[in-house]
Design goal:
The structure is a single chain. The two termini are 28 Å apart. The protein is an alpha+beta fold. It is globular and about 50 Å long. The chain has a six-stranded antiparallel beta sheet, with helices on one face. The protein has a three-stranded antiparallel beta sheet with strand order 6-5-8, with no helix packed on it. Helix 1 packs across helix 3 and helix 2 packs across helix 3. It has two domains: 90 residues, no CATH class; 95 residues, Jelly Rolls, CATH 2.60.120. 30% of the residues lie in helices and 19% in strands. The structure holds zinc ion. Zinc ion binds next to helix 3. The site of zinc ion has 6 residues, from helix 3.
Length: 226
């Protein structure tokens, strides 16, 4: 069971179908591995379409968000109802058992399994392979880090979202294993070191080309309080 999860705001935006494609892929993949977040997204679905409309990035402001959160609090104490799915991707309903490594949403994107990927050497012990997604400006790639290798401090200029697929790594913030999601702000001292034993394979979304002053940036900021 993952210990590090996407924020409430990100899960809500995912349920509303308003996440950028790359981030949506991260969340969908996490959901296949995380029953707790699946249940949370299902609860957001139960809010219905009108509330999801209010989550449109163009209209999201703090007061709208506050009222939505109030409704969610009420919903928690009421009976659960199902609502039509309105998310960007089909919601995984049960753990993904077909492939030990790749969550189904990711496998569907790649069209191949891990062994067939073409890896590009980044530095000694670190390789990556880019994933072509829609033109939302985010850079999406898989990274493979050999056991015990430390990735140099990042040169990206925006936030970075990582989902661990195999192995694990540690940095100053904690230890991350399969299914865990880390949202790293560039101001944080972020130097991951892969666990010993097996290579660490991660799905990494970097937002460097994006302007992060909008909703996407706010959604990703783990320190934002509404
Ligand atoms: Zn989770």
């Amino acid at each position: 069971m993952p210990k590090h999860h996407p924020s409430e705001e990100i899960l809500m935006a995912y349920a509303a179908g308003s996440l950028p494609e790359a981030l949506s892929l991260v969340v969908a993949s996490h959901l296949t591995l995380c029953p707790a977040c699946r249940a949370e997204v299902e609860a957001y679905e139960a809010l219905g379409g009108s509330l999801m409309d209010a989550l449109d990035p163009a209209s999201l402001d703090e007061s709208a968000f506050s009222s939505i959160m109030a409704e969610i609090d009420m919903l928690d104490s009421e009976t659960e109802e199902s609502a039509p799915w309105g998310g960007a991707m089909p919601l995984p309903r049960k753990p993904d058992m077909e492939d030990p490594s790749l969550p189904r949403p990711l496998r569907d994107y790649l069209q191949v399994d891990l062994t067939a990927l073409q890896w590009r050497k980044v530095m000694r012990g670190v390789e990556d392979t880019e994933i072509e997604l829609g033109p939302d400006g985010a850079k999406t790639r898989l990274m493979r880090i050999q056991p015990g290798v430390a990735v140099p401090k990042h040169t990206h200029h925006g936030q970075e979202v990582t989902l661990v697929l195999e192995g694990g790594y540690s940095d100053a913030d904690g230890h991350y294993e399969r299914g865990d999601v880390q949202i790293a702000d560039p101001s944080v001292d972020h130097q991951p070191v892969a666990d010993v034993g097996e290579p660490c394979i991660c799905l990494v979304v970097s937002d460097a080309p994006m302007k992060m002053t909008g909703t996407f940036g706010r959604l990703l900021n783990p320190f934002v309080t509404y």
